[in-house]
Amino acid sequence: MTIDNELALKFLRKAEHDLGSARLLLTGENLFDSVCFHCQQLSEKSIKALLTNKSVRFKKIHDLDVLLSLLDDHDFNSFRSYALILNSYAVDARYPGDYVEPEREEAEEALRMATEIYELALKKLNISNNK
Fold it and tell me: Among 11, 25, 40, 82, which residue's Cβ finds the most Cβ atoms within 10 Å?
């Protein structure tokens, strides 16, 4: 296993933590901003796992659209619209201000979108999902 493969697996492990956190937080009362944040992180780390596995170098960025462009995989093109939604949860959801708190339905939708990205990443990396 190469260093890139090992790092890709580490990104996936971190993604799994975000998936577990999002699912757990969704069971709580009004923690939907945190659910959405973990969904963005789940998506970001899933894409970064693929980039790393393909030895594509990237800066420390959080923009899913940019990461998808670097990935350049037509199977992920349908996730461009997801990227726009999930990107809004990367920073704004963590701080008070003009940000509108997401409702349960938005958090559930964010989890669905992020899970789709994660599962396709697992498939691309030929890793079974036993969760």
Answer: 40
